[in-house]
Amino acid sequence: MTLLSCLLPFVLLASFQFLTGSSLKNHHGHVQRGKPMFQTNQTTCALFSGTWVRDDTYPLYKYSDCPLIDAEFNCQMYGRPDSDYLKYRWQPLGRVLPRFNGLVFLSKMRGKHVMFVGDSLGRNQWESLICMVSASAPKMKTQMSRGDPLSTLKFIDYGLSVSFYRAPYLVDIDMVGGRRILKLEDIHAHGNAWRIADVLVFNTGHWWSHKGSLQGWDLIETGGKYYKDIDRLVALEKGLRTWANWVDTNVDRTKTRVFFQSISPTHYDPSEWSTRATTMATKNCYGETTPMTGTTYPGTYPDQKRVVDEVIREMYVPTYLLNITMLSELRKDGHPSIYSGDLSPAQRANPDRSADCSHWCLPGLPDTWNELFYAALFH
Ligand SMILES: *[C@@H]1O[C@H](CO)[C@@H](O)[C@H](O)[C@H]1NC(C)=O
Ligand SMILES: *[C@@H]1O[C@H](CO)[C@@H](O)[C@H](O)[C@H]1NC(C)=O
C-alpha cells in the first residue's frame, strides 16, 4: 500500500516529460538534462505527510487584489477578525515545498488548458490558483467567461486557460419529467467537455452524502433500474468507476495529465480535535484560529477516501492523487465559519446552525493544495 502510493506518482512523472520537454529545473533553477526522472520518487511520495509551520511570508496574495473570489470564500471581506490562519506553510517531512511562482507556471503552461472538474471544493481550488498566478503578474490581460457548468479564465498573453467545470458527482445528472436522475453509469454529457483539457483535476465527495433538502437528486439510475436511494458509499464507488473508465478509455496518457483531489474534510464535530469539546461554547469550527499541531488528525480515516484510493489504484491512466485529506484535516481554523458572504445577518448570529465548516477561506488552505499541485507538475 505504502509502496504503491509512492510508486504511482513516480511512474507518472517518468511518463510525462512532455510538459517541460526533455529538461527539468531543479529547486535552484538549474536545468538538469538527461537525468532519470525517477530520482524524484521519494520526495514526491513524502509531499503529503508533514506539519504546519508558522511563516510570516504568507499569504501569497491579498483578497483585495483578487476580485474573482466568491463571497462564500471571501472571509476577510466579510469580517473575519483574526489573521493568524493565513500565516502557515505546509512543511512536508524531509523536504521543502517549492515556492509557487506564477510566472513559471504561466510559461510552462503556455498554450495549455487546465480544468478543475467537480463540486465547490474544486471551485475553491480553481479560484485560489487564479489568484496565485495573478499575484505574480498583476498587469496581465485576462478574459473571464462565467457559465454553468463551465467557467474559464484566460491569460491572454500566454494562451493559458484555467477552467472550472461544475459536475458535483462527476457522472451525469439529467432532468426527466421534472425529476433529477443521477445516472451512475453515464458520464458522456459531461465527459465530452473535458476533452479539450491538457491537465484535468477532478474531485467529488460531499454531494454523495447530502440528505434531505441538500440531496441533489430525486432518483438514482443504475443497472437499468431506478432507486429512491441506495447505500451512499456504493453509489460513490459506482460513480467513480464510471469516471475512471471514462478516463481510461478517453484520455491519451501521453498528452493529458490527470489529477484527483482527495476528499476535503469538514469540521463540524469538535470532539474529533478537542478533548474539551463537551464544555466548549460552540459545536463546530466557529472560533477556531490555529491549526492542529503534529502530523496526524485524531478523527477517523474517511470511508469515502478509502473508496477513492481503491478506484484510483486500479486505473490504467496514471492518476495523481493530490492527497490533501490529512493535511486539510489539521486546518480546523481554515473554514469560512460565519464569515461567508453567502450568510444572512441572522445566520451569522447563529454559528451553531449556520457556520460553513466545509469550504475554505481564500486566501487560505486551497493555496497549499495548489503549491502541491505545482510541485507535482514541475518538480
Ligand atoms: C527511488 O526508489 C527506488 C526504489 O524504491 C530506490 O532504489 C532509489 O534509491 C530511489 N531513488 C532516490 C533518489 O531516492
Ligand atoms: C495520503 O497521505 C496520508 C498522510 O497524509 C497517508 O497516511 C496515506 O497513506 C496517503 N494515501 C495514499 C493513498 O497515498
From TrEMBL:
Q: How does it sit in the membrane?
A: Single-pass membrane protein
Signal peptide (residue range): 1-21
Gene Ontology annotations for the cellular component aspect, listed alphabetically: Golgi apparatus; membrane
Q: Which domain of life is it from?
A: Eukaryota
Pfam families per the record? PC-Esterase, PMR5N
Q: Which residues form the Trichome birefringence-like N-terminal domain?
A: 44-92
Q: What is its main location?
A: membrane
Q: Where in the cell is it found?
A: Membrane
Give a yes or no for keyword Cell membrane in this entry.
no
Specify the Trichome birefringence-like C-terminal domain's residue ranges.
97-375
What are the GO MF terms of this UniProt record?
Answer: O-acetyltransferase activity
Keyword list (alphabetical) reads: Membrane, Signal, Signal-anchor, Transmembrane, Transmembrane helix
Cite the InterPro entries for this sequence.
TBL, TBL_C, TBL_N
Homology family? Belongs to the PC-esterase family. TBL subfamily.
The entry's protein name is Protein trichome birefringence-like 45
Q: Which organism is it from?
A: Hibiscus syriacus
